[in-house]
Each structure stands twice: as structure tokens, then as C-alpha cells.
Amino acid sequence: MGWTVGRNVRIDYRWGEGDAERYRRQTAEIFALEPDVILSWGAEIAGGSQKVGRAVPIVFAQSIDPVGSGMVASLARPGGNATGFTQFEYSLSGKWLELLKQIAPGVTRTAVLRDTGSSGGIGQWAIIQAGASSSGVETFPINMREASQIEHAVAEFARPGNGGLIVTMSVLGVRHRQLIITLAARHKLPAVYPERFYVAGGGLISYGPNIVDQYRRAAGYVDRILKGEKPADLPVQAPTKYELVINLKTAKALGIDVPPTLLGPRPVSQRRSLVPGDYFLRPTFQAS
């Protein structure tokens, strides 16, 4: 797009690691640098930026609920200093339950790991719970907080057997992802995750938007704002590309035969391994 670091653009980075206090501190640091635009992963971080100074344009790349969180007035007309891209629609949460039943039909109990501190965590849980009765699955919420609390809750849930896990999208899920993957393996729990990096780390199956694609599209909005356009005039957009990713090694370790309905039939060009022989990736698309 014509921008070169060190020549006509400077980029300053911060990473909060899911720590709310660190996010607040780093937001103040970023504003002290007097940026022309801020790129934020989600609405929670962008919301903190708005509180510090509403004049700076903000582009978010993965907001779960920008309208509900008050980041924008509407998707079509953001109306303020922020715009960007949603992470998914709440209806996607029901798909995770369907996938769990497809890949592990014997599951009758499902623990749903959620963050009750965000509207996104509550909304995702509501959709999963609504679809549970028709699927013949009993749902059990696990509120993600500290690592010890998650470990104890998962162990208690797993004890009766016939269980599975659904991990909803949240900062805390990302922060505790390796612990959650380890617990699922330890207790032999088939688990569905919202993003592919969980599967790359040893998780069983994920279904969600292509995150890299989201940031590429966000770069386009950053470019347009730097060239003079206003966030208020740029509509919030939904993902256009979703991916189903399965870790075949994890499936084998759990004694799961992945059903053909998940593996194909698909053209060879749409099958791609992250590590040869270890993964199956099936991209799917929706209209923008």
C-alpha cells in the first residue's frame, strides 16, 4: 500500500497478554506517543483507548460485539472514532456444539469454558445452551478466571465420563490455551476450539474465522484512515473466510475416527497440512 517502516511510517507495538491492568497501562503509553491511528485486536482494548482519548482513530480487527460493547453506534454507520471487523456472529457458537457431536457422537455432557466478564462470553453461552436440548447434550458452564480454578473445574466435570469441551472466544481462553489443551488431553475430553492456533498447539478441532485475513483487511482500513478517511464513514465488516481445522494426531490419541462428513469429500486443492500428516484443514466461505 506504499507504506515503509522507517521511511514514511512508524509502528509501535504493545502486547497485554490478557492482563487488564497491563492493557490500561499500555493504552496510556500508546496515547503518549500521539499516534495517527491505533490498531486494536478487539473492542475491549479499543474501548480502553476511547476512554483515554476519543480523538484518535481506532481500527479493531477481532471485536466480538462492537455494538453491544458501545464501541460503535451501528455496524453500517459506526458514528465515532472507531471501526473495524467483527470476529464472528453469535450463531457460530451453535456450530461448535454440532461439530463436537459429529466428531464424538458419544458425548452427552459438555463443559463450556466462558468469560462472564464480557458480553461476548454471555452471548456465546446462551447460543450453545439453546441448542443443547435438541442435540441431547447437557451443558455445564465453567467460568474462566485463574489457572487453578480452571484445572479444578475441568477435573470435576470429567470425572463421570462421556464429556466434551467447548472453548468460547475470549482473552482468557487465549491466555490459558495451553493449560486447557493439556487438561483436555489428560482427561480424554474431545474439545472444540474457536481458532486454529489451539489445534496447532495440540487441540482436537477448531472452527472459526481466518485471523490473518482479518488483520490483512484491517490494514486496508488503517491505510484509508492515514490517507484521510474517517472511521465514522467506514462500516464495520464481518469475516468472509472461515476454517475447519482438525488435529489428526490428537484424534488418534483420543481414539476418535474422524467421520468422512468432516474430512470430505473436498478437492485436493482445499486440503492443506500445517505439518504434513498431522492436520486437516477445510476452508469454508460466507458472503461478505
Distance between the termini: 22 Å
CATH architecture descriptor name of the largest domain: 3-Layer(aba) Sandwich
Strand order of the largest sheet: 5-4-6-7-8-9-10
Strand content: 15-25%
Strand element count: 10
Instruction: Characterize the main sheet.
Output: 7 strands, mixed
Number of helical segments with 4 or more residues: 11
Tell me what you see in this structure.
- There is one protein chain.
- The chain is of the alpha/beta class and 288 residues long.
- The protein folds into two domains: 20-88 and 210-233, 3-Layer(aba) Sandwich (Rossmann fold), CATH 3.40.50.2300; 92-209 and 241-285, 3-Layer(aba) Sandwich (Rossmann fold).
- The protein has eleven helices and ten strands.
- A seven-stranded mixed beta sheet has the order 5-4-6-7-8-9-10, sandwiched between helices. The chain has a three-stranded parallel beta sheet with strand order 1-2-3, sandwiched between helices.
- β7 (191-193), α8 (196-200) and β8 (205-209) form a beta-alpha-beta unit.
- The model is unreliable at 266-277 (pLDDT under 50).
Characteristic terms for this protein:
single chain; 288 residues; alpha/beta; Rossmann fold; seven-stranded mixed beta sheet; three-stranded parallel beta sheet; 11 helices; elongated
List the helices and strands and how they pair.
Layout: H1 20-32, E1 38-40, H2 43-52, E2 58-63, E3 82-86, H3 92-103, E4 109-114, H4 119-135, E5 138-143, H5 147-158, E6 163-167, H6 171-175, H7 177-186, E7 191-193, H8 196-200, E8 205-209, H9 211-226, E9 241-247, H10 248-253, H11 260-263, E10 279-285
Parallel strand pairs: 1-2, 2-3, 4-5, 4-6, 6-7, 7-8
Antiparallel strand pairs: 8-9, 9-10
Helix pairs in contact: 1-2, 3-4, 5-7
